[in-house]
């Protein structure tokens, strides 16, 4: 199965991805997580990505596309979270897949209202070791500041601070939202209302994926 998760920052893509991985046993590829890992390890890719991530901007297409294609070349099943994020990335992915006689099975779009997205992003805390996501109010860890899953330390992403959030939501509106129509035209788009509880959203997603 090959699927992509679309939707604005804070919609719940990473949260749902964790449940999808558990149920369907497919690799979760989050371009944001990969950039953050490179950033922590201070690789050339991480240094390049940081220039953009700190400002809430998208990393340039050529950098992102090359990174993803390199990863996907030996995989036949995956869930892409946060890629594609521009029409150029979506076209590059299509070209990459059709050259291999492959195609996407489904594009899941998770959405929620603007004010809820801001609340979710600002309260998000992430494990520095395993990237598991928590929320100060909606999904607090059992022990303050510590990951339930692996015991790693939780932190607030720099780009989750209020001053960067608006820019990220603007980037979504102008560059990523057109992908909804892009995948609608390909007849593989499935919309999911992400404003409900994690369990309710998962239920919808499982129903869609069970039919794939
Ligand atoms: P995305 O990957 O789309 O940016 P996340 O999955 O990281 O979003 O979720 C953003 C924040 O909202 C996290 O703090 C997460 O714990 C919380 N969250 C995600 N889904 C829900 C939900 N259905 N209800 C309440 N909080 C949620
Ligand atoms: P995320 O973890 O998905 O919220 O992504 C965090 C940041 O990483 C984004 O704000 C971008 O700066 C960068 N990023 C992640 N995925 C992409 C992508 N597909 N294209 C460009 N930039 C990306």
What does this structure look like?
This protein is of the alpha/beta class and 212 residues long. The protein has a single domain (2-27, 75-210), classed as Rossmann fold, CATH 3.40.50.300. 48% of the residues lie in helices and 15% in strands. It has helices at 13-24, 31-40, 44-53, 61-72, 87-98, 114-122, 162-176, 178-185, 198-210, and strands at 2-6, 28-30, 78-81, 106-111, 124-127, 133-135, 154-155, 189-193. The strands form two sheets. The chain has a five-stranded parallel beta sheet, with helices on both faces. A three-stranded antiparallel beta sheet has the order 6-5-7. β5 and β6 (133-135) form a beta hairpin. It binds adenosine-5'-diphosphate and adenosine monophosphate (AMP). Residues 9, 31-32, 35, 52-53, 56-59, 64, 82-83, 85, 89, 159, 168 line the site of adenosine monophosphate (AMP). Adenosine monophosphate binds at residues 9, 31-32, 35, 52-53, 56-59, 64, 82-83, 85, 89, 159, 168.
